[in-house]
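Input sequence (372 aa), recorded before submission:
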Amino acid sequence: MHIVLIANGFQEDYIINLLNSLSGKIERIDFIGSSIYPELKIDSRVHRYNFRSHDENAGSLSKIQRNLSYYPKLLSFLYKSPAKIVHTQWLRFNFFEGVVMTLAIKMLEKKAVYTAHDVLPHSKNNPYNRSVFKLIYKIQDEIIVHSDYIKKRIVNEFHIRPNKITVVKHGLYKITESPALSRDAAREKFGYHHDQLVLLFFGYITKYKGLDLLLEAFTVLQASMPDIRLLIAGKVSQEYRHEYDLLSSQYKSDGIIKIARHIKEEEVEPIFKAADVVVLPYKEASQSGVLFMSYAYGKPVIAPALGGFPDDIETGKTGLLFEPNNIDSLAATIQEYAGNRNPNGSYIKEYAQRNYSWDASAECLVQIYKQV
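Predicted structure, token format:
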């Protein structure tokens, strides 16, 4: 079997784990990526092709030129490739990549597989996007989703045949922990004391992630919980930068540490080990890769009761759920966690390994490719 996997700039950790889990199970994988995916981390059996650089600081003209040169290279590669399956992981330009490129793939007599990590782009649920994604879903040969929630929505809202959509669970991120870095040692890096309650907000910061809800809940809790702390770590999206700056000036506290930039790989472990619980105050979501990163470090998660979170969180054991978009409920849930703070990191890791194995997900994908 020979497949082409196109990342389109999707999450580095996810793509690397996916490729490494598939390698050895498929005769040949051609990976169309970019410079954001470190070559040394990808299994040597994967054939890697970088048709464009990845510089977010490049000017608009440079980005246009980069894209204009990328798509002819990609089409030429696909035309010459004997691969019969093209698996697209993400869409940056929904109509062009989701419709035009998919039709081109099918014209080349290849099967189009698409992973719908979300039903619709975040904060963009409008008639135009719904019509575009209805067409995108219609023309795929197979759709991969990570939860029954996403599958049901695509079936019910876009009238797609259920047997065209397969649930393949999001894998647990594979990490390498340093035994020498204890919880207390990690906390020293941020000036935290042993008994303080440290909340972590981690990952790409944009509007739908609900940072404003968490900041308001944190401010309310500080009055009765002087030892509560909040660590915010992640890069701020360009479209959210102005609103983030306003929030930063509005919510000033010695109890809040902000690392508003790209988080380096070597910084991730200390950040998670310093935290007691990871808070995902999302206003909308189908799922979250941050949840699986948290589980990998044995950290419980507080998340809204929406999307796939109720299926991915074992209440009281791997985390807690709160009422979506409700600051009072979020604050009360954090208080509930603080009152029963006794997380079993070993259980969380065991639970995650048992339910979210990358190898199991890869085996499932292989069977889907064979059927397609």
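Checked by second reader. The first strand starts at residue 2 and ends at 6.
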